[in-house]
């Protein structure tokens, strides 16, 4: 019994160590995604831990994500430019580069607000282009769109660009850039953010999971952090609406990607510890190795 208790304590410490390492790059990644990221590590170390126990472990150590405040409004739809109809309502893309969605979010610095424009592929959730700009003028979104166009794998694909009715997306220069690249224009109806839900979700991920809602020194620091965060988001963060693929992985797929948004009810039966007689010697060896973790030597354990 003492051996089993010690083994579980050490395994918990190992899991917490990896959680903290992942959170260094993805500070507010959710529990379900952490569980997916750690499945192979658990398997390699013969750790038996279900989702409910994993959730409880993180809650006990105050590692659950805390909610954030509501965001600042960045859309001004009171302007003279043409507003386009919604072309993606009820339409689900079957592959990448069929629909792009765009939006702007703000970031706080000691010198005031700066604004980050994103262009995201609606199918793969990959961020195709981004730009940090000191004002809300159209130059920021235009730079983000230009980056997305350079990242496009298939320039001949039939592509729809969807956004809100903000002046940045309705202005002549932005619309002409879309038209020159034979991209159809689609917009949400006024005051309805749910019609641009993917773009809103990307903004939320950067605010909640990557701590972009903190105060930065200046715009240059924001630019560097956004660059790093986009790389992590595209290449490391599993996406629940893409069958837990990363956006970069999903961007090379086609067809329906399974959405894993379903909530999982807690198991009512009592957890029964796994029999460890067969792996007792291996577990004892691991406990000896993991003693470094309990002693605080985490650097050695990560090598």
Task: Write up this protein.
The protein is α/β, with parallel strands linked by helices and 303 residues long. The protein contains 11 helices and 6 strands. Strands 1, 2, 3, 4, 5 and 6 form a 6-stranded mixed sheet that branches. The longest helix has 24 residues, at 2-25. The model is unreliable at 263-281, 291-295 and 297-303 (pLDDT under 50).
Which descriptors apply to this entry?
303 residues, alpha/beta, six-stranded mixed β-sheet, 11 helices, 6 strands, globular
How much helicity do the residues have?
40-55%
What would you call the shape? globular
For this entry, what is the oligomeric state of its chains?
Answer: single chain
Radius of gyration: 23 Å
> Mind describing the biggest β-sheet?
6 strands, mixed
Structural class: alpha/beta
Beta-strand proportion: 5-15%
Number of strands: 6
**What is the chain-wise order of helices and strands?**
HHHEEEHEHHEHEHHHH
Secondary structure layout plus pairing:
Layout: H1 2-25, H2 31-44, H3 51-60, E1 99-109, E2 112-121, E3 127-133, H4 139-151, E4 160-163, H5 167-170, H6 172-180, E5 184-187, H7 197-208, E6 215-216, H8 219-235, H9 247-250, H10 280-294, H11 298-301
Helix pairs in contact: 1-10
Summarize the structure.
The chain is α/β, with parallel strands linked by helices and 303 residues long. It has eleven helices and six strands. The protein is globular and about 70 Å long.
């Amino acid at each position: 019994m003492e051996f089993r208790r010690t083994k579980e304590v050490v395994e918990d410490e190992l899991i917490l160590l990896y959680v903290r390492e992942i959170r260094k790059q993805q500070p507010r990644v959710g529990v379900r995604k952490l569980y997916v990221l750690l499945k192979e590590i658990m398997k390699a170390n013969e750790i038996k831990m279900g989702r409910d126990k994993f959730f409880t472990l993180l809650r006990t150590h105050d590692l659950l994500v805390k909610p954030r405040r509501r965001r600042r409004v960045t859309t001004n739809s009171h302007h003279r430019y043409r507003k386009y109809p919604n072309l993606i309502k009820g339409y689900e893309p079957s592959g990448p580069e069929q629909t792009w969605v765009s939006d702007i979010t703000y970031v706080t610095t000691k010198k005031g607000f700066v604004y980050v424009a994103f262009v995201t592929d609606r199918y793969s959730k990959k961020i195709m282009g981004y730009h940090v700009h000191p004002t809300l003028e159209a130059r920021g979104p235009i730079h983000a769109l230009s980056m997305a166009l350079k990242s496009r794998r298939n320039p001949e694909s039939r592509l729809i660009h969807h956004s809100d009715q903000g002046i940045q997306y309705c202005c002549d220069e932005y619309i002409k850039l879309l038209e020159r690249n034979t991209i159809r224009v689609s917009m949400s109806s006024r005051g309805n953010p749910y019609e641009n839900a993917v773009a809103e979700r990307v903004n939320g991920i950067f605010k909640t999971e990557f701590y972009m809602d903190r105060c930065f020194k200046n715009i240059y620091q924001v630019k560097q952090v956004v660059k790093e965060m986009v790389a992590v988001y595209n290449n490391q963060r599993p996406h629940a609406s893409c069958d837990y693929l990363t956006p970069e992985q999903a961007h090379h797929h086609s067809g329906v990607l399974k959405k894993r948004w379903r909530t999982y009810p807690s198991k009512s039966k009592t957890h029964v510890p796994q029999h460890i007689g067969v792996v007792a010697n291996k577990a004892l060896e691991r406990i000896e190795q993991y003693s470094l973790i309990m002693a605080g030597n985490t650097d050695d354990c990560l090598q």
